[in-house]
Amino acid sequence: MARISQHALKQAAQAGIISEQQADSLHLFLQQQDSHTPRFNFTHLLYYFGGLIAIGAMTLFMNLAWEGFGGWGIVSISLGYAVLALILCQRFKNQGLVIPAGICATFVICLTPLAIYGLQQAMGWWPSSSQYQDYHRYIQWQWIYMEVATLVVGLILSWHYRYPFMILPIAVTLWYMSMDIAAMLTGHRPDYLFRALVSLYFGLAMILIAFWVDIRSRHCGDYAFWLYLFGVLTFWCGLTMQDSNSELAKLGYFVTNLVMMLCGVILARKVFVVFAAFGSFAYLYHLADSVFQDSWLFPISLTIIGLAIVYLGILWQKHQLSLSSKLRAYLPLALQELLASKAH
Question: Structural domain boundaries of the chain?
Answer without folding.
Answer: 36-166
